[in-house]
């Protein structure tokens, strides 16, 4: 897969479906990422953000037990931390401010997601 692409990068995972969260976290770790989470709620995601010394990227499930992840996304935008959305719904429902963000339909193609994260991290560090 994308082994080593995220070596040493801190990636926050926000996903409410336990098995998906575990699988995603494992695959990110195999790509070299230091995984924060997974967080299964907005509250836990904010706790992890507050405790993180540094964060390179995030993967955000749009819907967390009926709550939208957008407050986390807004915080990440303010901090200039790249992220991607994952969703089981139609990506066209994203608010206009997030239309330029990458959004992956579930089940997620992890190779593509990892490559997208790596490119976003590289671009953010060059900005």
From TrEMBL:
<keyword id="KW-0614">Plasmid</keyword>
<dbReference type="InterPro" id="IPR011006">
    <property type="entry name" value="CheY-like_superfamily"/>
</dbReference>
<feature type="modified residue" description="4-aspartylphosphate">
    <location>
        <position position="61"/>
    </location>
</feature>
<keyword id="KW-0597">Phosphoprotein</keyword>
<protein>
    <submittedName>
        <fullName>Response regulator CheY-like domain-containing protein</fullName>
    </submittedName>
</protein>
<dbReference type="GO" id="GO:0000160">
    <property type="term" value="P:phosphorelay signal transduction system"/>
</dbReference>
<dbReference type="Pfam" id="PF00072">
    <property type="entry name" value="Response_reg"/>
</dbReference>
<dbReference type="InterPro" id="IPR001789">
    <property type="entry name" value="Sig_transdc_resp-reg_receiver"/>
</dbReference>
<feature type="domain" description="Response regulatory">
    <location>
        <begin position="10"/>
        <end position="121"/>
    </location>
</feature>
